[in-house]
């Protein structure tokens, strides 16, 4: 537990925030700046928002003696990543009226809108509320969006884990009602009794916390990167319980060896949903009580586990739960990618997975994706689901409606595009990075598409164009696009420069290793050319690029 005299400044902001209210009301009313007060910039995260600025326009603004062009990013809380048609149509309109218009699917199965000016923040949240959507706890030192295997057609048991994602999300919501009195009602009602928060108390968690649920054999949620990972164990077509793991997290800081990416360690198995919920709750209370509150770089649950030791952490959780974990059960992941195109589930309903490059939904010349999706939403005959690979599933379509949806997909070039893009592109993920992310050292989603176009012919040269190689790029080592567990990971170091990592496995069970440091495009392409050449010559039958690179790294040590 952290010494009270050595707390990070964020701890003071949280405890003194009056249930996360701070001076947000005053900050919003201040017309002289597009920004909000410094402490409020911390608090607004707990309401699902970040203050950002357009980094492309910093120089121009400074030259004009103007303050940076501040705006807000809002992230929705969507456990399991689901919207109805009506909600999608509402989101489309909100994006048009209040943000840049781009609807961004994130790597945690939810949606972000960017570029919302201060005066539009409240109307945006109020409009979300009209569509029964909220952004509570989508960011901040609390549990974030709970992810679960995305595609219901993967398993008849999907609904059960989707509902569990919702229950965990509810269980972990902060009890303060400040979201409603700040953004919706305008009336400050502080009711200490109903706002008492046994889970978060008034100090919240030392840092963000993430939870994911997977149904093997699918690991599209990349379950082991979460602080808490639940793996459904299926016997005789029933979920008989969950393996629970803890301590995943991918963020690190260049030059700070005390920070590192880590995959979650298995704590054990529990045989009921009730026990799974209790275990999740108590894993969180142990992190709340033992996590580092002085150095935010070392405050994620993974560091607490490594400090207490996995046995020590498990013993404390078991003591608080009043039951012990059973030994973890066998499970096997077989894929992490999304299955594009049409799939049918056990009830005969249809699901179409759309490839959305880095989750960016907009209309561009010749590809009116956003308009096509609005037209589909207007039929009222589909639901919208989001994947942790930043893609979209048009879901729950009845047999008799499939033709109508297929026609719209075709007319707008959506199915054509999903069919034709390369395997590498379909397995690529990039984080937002520039121009909105304040932590970006290099480009992410704006550059990976260009780089992939240049890598495609190199793969073709070796006949590897149909290989499902995962490539992920992040503009810094925080790992938002999960570059640390890709087969090819590119981690931004400076503008136009990346560390190249290889050797991660295809299923998300092994982290990759830094192979080249701080290299630009030319060297990335040369290095990959060389590696693909050795791979095509020396691979074992069916060996993935990640497994081959891992083996190759051992030979050159
Ligand atoms: Fe992330 C911070 C975007 C998934 C690890 N992340 C940020 C911020 C908010 C930058 C900031 O703090 O000012 C980025 C906002 C960019 C923007 O302009 O929108 C940002 N993270 C994203 C998203 C939108 C990337 C994307 O393109 O999809 C993802 C939103 C997820 C969501 O819906 O909740 C996103 N971030 C992740 C993931 C992947 C995951 O969870 O599956 C990770 C790695 C896993 C993990 O948490 O360790 C991740 N984000 C971070 C970190 C490193 C945390 C750490 O432990 O060191 C930061 C920096 C921080 O927290 O200080 C960060
Ligand atoms: Fe920003 Fe870094 Fe996350 Fe990319 S990985 S969105 S650059 S914090």
Automatic annotation (TrEMBL):
Residues 72-125, 346-411 form the Nitrite/Sulfite reductase ferredoxin-like domain. Keywords: 4Fe-4S, Heme, Iron, Iron-sulfur, Metal-binding, Oxidoreductase. InterPro entries: NiRdtase/SiRdtase_haem-b_fer (IPR005117), Nit/Sulf_reduc_fer-like_dom_sf (IPR036136), NO2/SO3_Rdtase_4Fe4S_dom (IPR006067), NO2/SO3_Rdtase_4Fe4S_prot (IPR045169), NO2/SO3_Rdtase_4Fe4S_sf (IPR045854), NO2/SO3_Rdtase_FeS/sirohaem_BS (IPR006066). Residues 166-322 form the Nitrite/sulphite reductase 4Fe-4S domain. Its cofactor is [4Fe-4S] cluster; siroheme. GO terms for molecular function: 4 iron, 4 sulfur cluster binding; heme binding; metal ion binding; sulfite reductase (ferredoxin) activity; sulfite reductase activity. GO terms for cellular component: sulfite reductase complex (NADPH). GO terms for biological process: sulfate assimilation. Belongs to the nitrite and sulfite reductase 4Fe-4S domain family. This is Sulfite reductase (NADPH) hemoprotein beta-component.
């Amino acid at each position: 537990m952290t010494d009270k005299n050595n707390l990070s400044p964020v701890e003071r902001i949280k405890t003194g925030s009056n249930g996360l209210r701070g001076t947000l009301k005053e900050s919003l009313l201040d017309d002289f700046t597009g920004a909000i007060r410094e402490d409020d910039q911390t608090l607004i995260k707990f309401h699902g928002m970040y203050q950002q600025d357009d980094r492309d326009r910093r120089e121009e603004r400074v030259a004009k003696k103007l303050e940076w062009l501040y705006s807000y990013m809002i992230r929705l809380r969507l456990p399991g990543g689901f919207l109805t048609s009506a909600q999608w149509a509402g989101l489309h309109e909100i994006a048009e009226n209040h943000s840049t218009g781009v609807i961004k699917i994130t790597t945690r199965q939810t949606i972000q809108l960017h570029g919302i000016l201060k005066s539009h923040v409240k109307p945006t949240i109020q409009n979300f509320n009209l569509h029964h959507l909220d952004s509570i706890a989508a960011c901040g030192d609390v549990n974030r969006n709970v992810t679960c295997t995305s595609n219901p057609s993967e398993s008849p048991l999907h609904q059960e884990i989707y509902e569990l994602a919702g229950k965990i999300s509810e269980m972990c919501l902060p009890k303060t009602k400040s979201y409603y009195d700040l953004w919706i009602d305008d009336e400050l009602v502080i009711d200490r009794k109903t706002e008492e928060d046994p889970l978060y108390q008034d100090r919240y968690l030392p840092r963000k916390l993430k939870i994911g649920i997977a149904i093997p054999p699918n690991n599209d949620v990349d379950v082991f990167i979460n602080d808490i990972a639940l793996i459904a164990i299926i016997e005789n077509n029933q979920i008989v319980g969950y393996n629970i793991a803890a301590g995943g997290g991918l963020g690190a800081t260049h030059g700070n060896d005390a920070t590192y990416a880590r995959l979650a360690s298995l704590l054990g198995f529990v045989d009921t949903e009730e026990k799974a919920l209790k275990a999740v709750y108590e894993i969180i209370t142990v992190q709340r009580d033992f996590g580092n509150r002085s150095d935010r770089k070392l405050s994620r649950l993974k560091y607490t586990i490594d400090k207490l030791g996995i046995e020590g952490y498990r013993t404390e959780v078991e003591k608080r739960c009043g039951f012990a974990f059973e030994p973890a059960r066998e499970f096997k992941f077989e894929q992490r990618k999304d299955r594009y195109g049409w799939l049918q589930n056990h009830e005969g309903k249809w699901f179409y997975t759309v490839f959305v490059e880095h989750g960016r939904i907009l209309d561009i010349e010749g590809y009116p994706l956003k308009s096509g999706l609005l037209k589909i939403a207007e039929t009222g005959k589909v639901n919208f689901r989001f994947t942790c690979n930043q893609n979209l599933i048009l879901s729950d379509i009845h047999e008799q409606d499939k033709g109508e949806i297929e026609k719209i997909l075709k007319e707008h070039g959506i199915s054509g595009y999903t069919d034709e893009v390369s395997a590498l592109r379909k397995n690529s993920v990039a984080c937002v990075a520039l121009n909105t992310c304040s932590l970006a050292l290099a480009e992410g989603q704006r550059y990976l598409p260009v780089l992939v176009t240049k890598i495609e012919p190199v793969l073709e040269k070796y006949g590897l164009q149909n290989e499902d190689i995962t490539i992920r790029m992040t503009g810094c080592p925080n790992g938002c696009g999960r570059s640390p567990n890709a087969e090819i990971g590119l981690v931004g170091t400076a503008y136009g420069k990346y560390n190249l990592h290889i050797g991660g496995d295809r299923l998300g069970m092994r982290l990759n290793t830094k192979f080249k440091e701080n290299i630009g495009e030319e060297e990335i392409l040369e290095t990959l050319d060389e590696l693909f050449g050795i791979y095509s010559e020396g691979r074992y039958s069916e060996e993935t690029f990640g497994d081959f690179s891992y083996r190759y790294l051992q030979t050159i040590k």
